[in-house]
Amino acid sequence: MNLEQKIQGFAKLGSVLVQASNNEISSEFPDVSKRLIALIENTHIENPWFIKEYVRYTFNQIGNSLSEKRLREWTNLYSTVDLNKDTSQTIAVVMAGNIPLVGFHDFLSVLISGHKILIKQSSKDPLISEISKILCDIDSDFIPYINFAKDKLKNFDAIIATGSNNTKRYFEYYFSKYPSIIRGHRNSVAVITGDENEDNLKKLAHDVFLYFGMGCRNVSKIYIPRDYPVKKLIEAFLGYESILLNHHKYFNNYEYFKSIYLINREPFLDSGFFMMKQDSQLSAPLSVVYWEEYSSKKALMNSLNEIKNNIQCIVSEDETISPIAFGEAQNPNWNDYADGIDVLSFLLAVKKRE
């Protein structure tokens, strides 16, 4: 397959994903649309964290990102001569399952690069196998490029693996002889300057609570100016109350950590569906948002620089702090790579080893 054919195939996938997210049937691929709509409605049965609101959001976000324009803007950053060359190499991809289709970027990158992909699917995310089948239904030429590992990974040339920080150490040891990208868990942070309006803060709620806060691009900690009224954030985040209160797994976490803080007499602010706690740590428990005060912008930037290897992204309305505005944490461009590692450059370098 040449690059243009792959772009066309993924663009068609993007179109049906967007239509399905709006409960619309594609005239070109009606059966595909019906399957996608069924996935939105039923995936929570296999994984209760993948509620239909979040699966619908994922389909819409990925679908819009798969436009021909955005795919070409991305691939034009690289050698189209190299991207047009298919190889006999296979890239193994070990996917996480913390949020819907979290491994899609790697899936797209491997196929766009001209490699074959061997997927080790997380038991928590049933969506990637269904999406790959749909892509093959849209263009059957993708079929020989996509395989799934039923048990142990074997017969591959390089690997991309994502997991927890504990599994990262295991991956680094076990796959040490292969060209690799190995990722652990990261968190994202937000910076409040005090100049934000109510609409800005409501958008920040999206960065915190989308996917119940379980993604690496979810904000787990908020930096605030000294003496900033934290309760102002709680008031702005109330729009997520109905989703979070009505999800029993999330609410069980909320009650559990609330009881721990009460027993230990640790100070916290309680919204009734999430808690805010002043803490110097970066990674907050599910249902908890940490905050930390800063005295000056210089002190803030020094603090962020010290933990930069543990941060996935920073969101702020101040462009001098971050180009990612509130509400945009979960809308990265294709060249906005996890952990700052350029996956497509890695894949093209592996290709040259053949």
Q: Residue share in helices?
A: 40-55%
Report the mean per-residue pLDDT as an integer: 96
Assembly context of the chains? single chain
Report, as a whole number of angstroms, the end-to-end distance.
18 Å
Please, what is the CATH homologous superfamily of the largest domain?
Aldehyde Dehydrogenase, Chain A, domain 1
Main beta sheet = 6 strands, mixed
Describe the model:
The chain is an alpha/beta fold and 354 residues long. The protein folds into two domains: 3-185 and 334-351, Aldehyde Dehydrogenase, Chain A, domain 1, CATH 3.40.605.10; 187-316, Aldehyde Dehydrogenase, Chain A, domain 2. Helices cover 43% and strands 15% of the residues. The chain has 14 helices and eleven strands. The chain has a six-stranded mixed β-sheet with strand order 8-9-10-7-6-11, with helices on both faces. It has a five-stranded parallel β-sheet with strand order 3-2-1-4-5, with helices on both faces. A hairpin with a 4-residue loop joins strand 8 and strand 9 (275-278). The longest helix has 19 residues, at 3-21. The protein is globular, with a radius of gyration of 21 Å. The two termini are 18 Å apart. The mean pLDDT is 96.
